Structures are given as structure tokens and as C-alpha cells.
Amino acid sequence: MAKYPRIREQHIAVFGEGGSGKTVLVSSFFGPTQEGSYSNELWDLVADDTGQGNRLYRNFLGMRDRARAPLTTRFAATTYYFSVKLKGGDNTAAKKRPFDALRLAWHDYPGEWFEESPSSEEEANRRIDTFRSLLRSDVAFLLVDGQKLLDHAGEEERYLKSLLTNFRQGVLRLKDDLLGDGAPLVEFPRIWMMALSKADLFPDWDVYTFRDLVIEKAADHIDDLRSTLRDLVDTPDALSLGEDFMLLSSAKFELSEVGSEPVEIDVTQRVGLDLILPVASMLPLERRVQWNERMEIPRRVLDTVADGADTLAAVLVGGKAFGVDKLAAKLPKVGPYSKLVFPALAAAAKLAGSQLRDLNAQARKDHDFLTATLTQFKLDLEQGIKDKLLIRSLK
Q1: Is the alpha carbon torsion for 131, 178, 282, 328 positive or negative?
Q2: Residue 353 located in a structural domain
Q3: What are the tens digits of pLDDT across the range 179-228?
Q4: What is the pLDDT of residues 80-90, one digit of tens each?
Q5: How many domains does the chain have?
Q6: Interatomic CA distance for residues 9 and 19, integer angstroms
Q7: What is the pTM assigned to this prediction?
Q8: Rounded to whole angstroms, how far apart are CA atoms 320 and 338?
Q9: Residue 46: CA count within 13 A, CB half-sphere
Q10: What is the extent of the structural domain holding 280?
Q11: Residue 44 is inside which H or E element, if any?
Q12: I want to staple 197 with a disulfide (CB 3.0 to 4.6 A). Which of 17, 21, 27, 42 is the partner?
């Protein structure tokens, strides 16, 4: 008998220097969904750890009601688990759906670990273990601190080069331990999203302004970091860095004229946070299809790119109509996938425009909350691109 609720888990890793806004980001991602006025007709967001959820909501309330930003955490490696619990659990469609909740594991990696050398062997081992714990992530967010960009106005390259160099050196320090047996990593974050945190500091910017600045000022250092990451992984061509960009703002902070303490925090002025779930769940599926059409990827690698992609595809386009189950049973255990056995994956990844809107509307009408949620995620990605909050690689 199947276990209930049936859960599909997705992992993301969030990297950023100390003070780049990681704690504010996760608090503002979760907090608004707990307000009494919040309503989502498709799903509820819950924190799997009640204490963790209460602390995040307290952070949010401090910003909303007291203009008090969360205390900066130092050297704290935290994984937050959130569950997107679908509604309509007692209807006919729910009984047929392959899972009832989408769990998001949000790995927050301490920024100080990329800025400072370990102070002891114990800390060095903790860094390695923490990094290993996030290797299941499909998407990694590398935060560019908007405040530091502002502080370095006119010489942004100094900050960007420092950020990318520190991160690269931090990865190099871990390399020998991560590759203990000399074999490249099969499971590793394959999509590296460069995200501008505190985007509210640049009200006139869109994501193309951000992308152009980063490329102009630090293209060589992006190449160096990409090369370092490629050296870690099996099938290095199935890795993207410097191709996906995003704007993120947890709230609009009004600072006092003297000092840097906020006098008002408008938590309703959020940018990009509603795209995190769609990016985490849908972008790996799309990238998996793009890469599979462009190159031959060994199955051991492809299975780690968009874990559970077959299930998502079946939900989006109706797996049985495409014969997904029969095709999966016939797939070879070794060697590259055939490009001919992915009609459902390709169709799901390429759903767009009016066809996607029609599917979403029909799913809502049928109270098929899973299909409605996944198609809404894809619609949200389309809107994010239209609003110039997101650039996703076409490669």
C-alpha cells in the first residue's frame, strides 16, 4: 500500500557572502504564506519543522510590524524543509495523482566559509559534510549582493571579482575531499542561477541590466568558476553557469539618512520570490530535455538531472497517452538515452502559451490540483521572463 502523503522532493542550494540577504530571503519566501490574509486555491506551504517555521515567521513579522531585519547568522549551515501540500486530497483526481506534496529542501550554505579559511580540522570537515549534503540540488543560486554593488558603484568589477574568486577558491579547497576516490561527481547542482539580491536598491533595473553588468565586469571570472565546477563533475557539458539570471528582493527597505538601520520595511514589495518554486521544480525538467537533445548524456548522469522528471512529465501531458511507463521499462540500464524515447518529457518541457493556459484552466475546472499547480509553475516562469525578472538559458 502506498504511503500517504506521497511526497516528491526537490533540492536547491543558496550561496551568498555573509550579509547578502540569505536569511531575509528565506524568511520572506515563507512568511507571507502564513498570514491570515494569504490565500492559495491550489496548495498550502508548511514548514516541516515547526520550530524552524516559527523562527522564519518571527523574522517576517519583525520586518512587517517593527521594521526590524533578522539578525545576521554567521557560520550557520541550515537546511529548511518546506512542503507544498496540494488541496483536494479527497477528490477523484487526487487518488490518481502520483504524489500529494512537493517538498523543497532549501540548503543555506554559510557565506563566511567562502571568505575565510577553516579555523580547525573539525570545521574543515563540517564544511565538506555540509557541501556534500547539497549535492542532490538541481539548482544552485549564487547571490550577488545589491548593497555591495551599490557600494562599489563605478567599480563593480572589484566586488564581482572578489565574490567569484572567493567562491572558486572555496570550491577548490573542498575539491580533493569531494573527489576522494578520484572519480568525478555524478550528482551535483547542474544549473547555477546568478541572482541579484536586494534588487529593490535598483528600481530602474531589469534582469537584462543585471546580466549585462555581470558579463561586462566579470566574464573572465565566471569562466574560471565554470571551469572549476566542470572539473568536479561527470559529463561537464551538462552544467550551466553564467547563462541563467534572476532578480530577487525580499522587501523594500527604507533606510535612515544616518546609519544603515531600516526605518520602514514594506514586505509587500517582493521581487522574484514567487519564482523560486517554479524555478526549482520546472527549470531542471526543461534543461534536461534541452541537454538531451543537444548531446549524449549517460543515463547515470541524466537520472540525477531533474530527479523525478518522468513523473512531472506524465502529470503535465498525460503519461499514459505517451506510453511513458512502457518506455521507461524498456530503457537500457547503461549507455546514453535514446532521443526517441522522450516524447512526454519533450512535450512537457515545451508546453507554452495558449496550450499551457488551456491545460491549466481545464485542470482547475476538473479540480486536478497537481496538474493545475505544475502548469501554473510553468506559467509563472513565462510571466517572470515577460516581466524581465528572469533569464533562462536556451542552450
Answers
A1: negative
A2: yes
A3: 988 899 999 999 999 999 999 999 999 999 999 999 999 999 999 999 99
A4: 999 999 988 77
A5: 1
A6: 28
A7: 0.90
A8: 19
A9: 9
A10: 7-391
A11: strand 43-47
A12: 21
